[in-house]
Amino acid sequence: MRLCFVIQRYGLEVAGGSELHCRWLAGRLARRHQVEVATTCALDYLEWLDHYPPGPDRVDGVPVTRYPVARPRSGRRFALVSDLVFHEEHSLADEREWVVENGPFCPDLVRSLPRRRDIDLFVFYSYRYYHTFFGLPPVAGRAVLVPTAEEDPAIELPVFASLFRAPRGILYLTPEERSLVQGVSGNVGVPGAVVGSGINVPAGWPAVDVKARFGVPPRYLLYVGRIDRNKGADRLFSYYRQLRAEWPEAPPLVLVGRPALEIPVHPKILHLGFVTEEEKFALLAGCEALVMPSAYESLSVVVLEAWAMGRPVLVNSACRVLEGQCVRSGGGLFYRGYSEFAAALRRLSGDERLRAALGAAGKAYVRREYDWDVVEERTNGFLATMAGRG
Amino acid sequence: MTEPSGPDGPPVDVVRIMKEIRESIQKKREQGLYTDEEVESLAALRLRAYGEEARIDGKLLERLLGPTHDWNISVDYLIRTTRPGLFGRAVILAKKAVRPFVRLYTDHVLNRQAQVNLYFAHLLHNNVRETARLQVELQALRHRCEALERERGTHPPR
C-alpha cells in the first residue's frame, strides 16, 4: 500500500500526543508499506510559526513533505471567534471560521492532496485542525481519520459532524473516544477500529540513577506532561498542598514537563523540567504512583508508560477515557474531587501490596492491548480492508 | 475493606475500592464533615438554582459559574456582517474604519462596567459560599449535639 500521513506538525522535536502517535505508527508501517508524511513547517502549536524549511525532508527514514503556514494564528482573533462559537448564537460559517483561525492555515498542503492519485490511503490526524477539516473531504474516499478526540467543547460543534461521517474509515485510540465521536456525529455507519498505541520503552532506562541525577526522594508521586491548566495541573497543585497540610507524611510530588503556569514554591514539590526518555522511564519505574489530573485525554500515553513500568496510576474520573482504562486494566484508582483524591492516595501510599497488584495488572493490560505488534497488526488489517485489499 | 491481591494474585477490583472510598466519604458528609471543595460544590449548586430561577440563558449561566471571567463584557469584538460578496466586504471595511473612533468613546465606559460586574459577581459568589459553609457547620454542630445528648440518654436515637 502507498500511505500518506497528513498531520499538523511532524518532527523529532514535536512532543504532542497525536504527533507522537503518528510518528510511531508511520515508522512501524513504513517497514511493510510505502509511507510518506505531508505536514506543515510549524513546530509551535500556539502560533504555528514556520520552523522547518518547506519542501522534502526525512524523519526517522520516512519521507516528509512540508508546506509553509500561510498565516500564523492570531491569539486575539482566535479567542474572539472561540468566544462566539462556544458561547453565543452563531452559524456554521462561524464554526468554519473557527477552524480556519485554529489553523495551521496551510492551503498549499490542502491543495496538494487531491493531486496525489498514487496514494492508496491518506491517514489524517486530529479532527479539529485546518488541514483535516479542509483536506479530508476532497479525498474522503481514500481517507482514514484518526480523530484524537477529547471531551472538550470543540467536539460538540455541529460543523464537525459531517467531517466524522465523511471518511472511508476511522481509527480510534480508545472505546471511549469511539463512543464520544459516534455520539456527537451519529457516524455508526463509518467503519472504525479501536487500535490504541504502542509503547516504546527505551533500552537504556535501567542505567539511569534518578536519585543521584535529580535528587528525588525514595518515595514520590509523579506527574509527567505539560504543566498546564488544560491538563489539570493547577487543580493538582491545590489538592497536593491541601493534602500536605492534612497529611505531612504524604510523599513529595515530582513534576516532569514544560511549565505553562507558575509552579507553586513548596518544599515538597520538585520540578525537573525536561528529561530524556531514559530518565522519564527511570522516574516512572521508581514512583509510588503516577498522577494524571487531566480531564481531557483521548489516550494518555504516559499512563500506559507507567503501567509498562509496573506502576499504579491515580487519574481524574472527569476524563472517561482515563477512568475506562483503569477499570478495564485494574491498574489504577480514579478520583472525583479532593476528598477522593486524598483518600485514594492515602490508600495507595499505605499499601505496598495494593500498589504492586495494580502495577502488575496495568503491565499485563499494556502487554495485552498496547504491544506495538498488536497495534500494528490491528492498524494494518484495518487499513488493508479500507484500501480494498483485506 | 477489600483485601488487595499480590502481583501474582487475581486482579484488583478497582471499582470496588473506589466504592468503599466513596462510601466512607459519604458517611463523613452525613455527619456534616465537608471539605472546602465540597462546600464550593454546594455553593455552586445553589448559584445554579438561582440562575435557573431567574431564567438566565443556560450558556451564560455555565460561564458565570465557570472558573474564568470570559462571561464579562469586553471592549474587543469581532467585526462581522451577514451580507455576502463585495458588499459584505465593503461593510466590514467601513466598520473597521469607524471602530477606532467608536472605541474612543466606549472603551472606558465598558471597562468600568466590566469592573463593576466583576466586583458584584465576586461579592455574591462569596456570600453564597459563606452561607453554604455556615450551614454545613451548623449541620455538623447539630450532629455533635445529638451525639452528646444520646450519650447522656436525653435524646432518643434517630
Summarize the structure in words:
The complex is a heterodimer of chains A (390) and B (158). Chain A is α/β, with parallel strands linked by helices. Chain A folds into 2 domains: 2-198 and 371-386, Glycogen Phosphorylase B (Rossmann fold), CATH 3.40.50; 205-369, Glycogen Phosphorylase B (Rossmann fold). Chain A has helices spanning 17-29, 75-87, 92-102, 107-112, 130-135, 159-165, 175-185, 210-214, 233-246, 277-286, 301-308, 320-329, 338-349, 352-369, 372-386; strands spanning 2-6, 34-40, 55-59, 62-67, 121-125, 143-146, 169-172, 192-194, 221-224, 253-256, 269-271, 289-292, 313-316, 332-335. In chain A, α6 (159-165) crosses α7 (175-185). Chain A starts with a strand and ends with a helix. Chain B is mainly α. Chain B has one domain (27-152). Chain B has 4 helices and no strands. Chain B has helices at 14-30, 36-53, 58-65, 85-152. In chain B, α2 (36-53) packs across α4 (85-152). The longest helix of chain B is centred in the last third of the chain and has 68 residues, at 85-152.
Summarize the structure.
With 390 residues, chain A is α/β, with parallel strands linked by helices.
Question: Whole-number radius of gyration of chain A?
Answer: 21 Å
- The tally of structural domains of chain B comes to 1
Order of helices and strands of chain A: EHEEEHHHEHEHEHEHEHEEHEHEHEHHH
Spatial arrangement of strands, main beta sheet of chain A: 3-4-2-1-5-6-7-8
Mean pLDDT of chain B: 83
Structure summary, number of beta strands of chain B: 0
Q: What's the SSE pattern of chain B?
A: HHHH
Which geometry of chain A do the CA atoms define? globular
Hey, which two chains have the biggest interface? A-B, 32 and 31 residues
Q: How would you describe the shape of chain B?
A: elongated
Rounded to the nearest angstrom, the distance between the terminal CA atoms of chain B is 27 Å
Helix content bin of chain A: 40-55%
Might you state the CATH topology name of the largest domain in chain A? Rossmann fold
> What is the number of E strands of chain A?
14
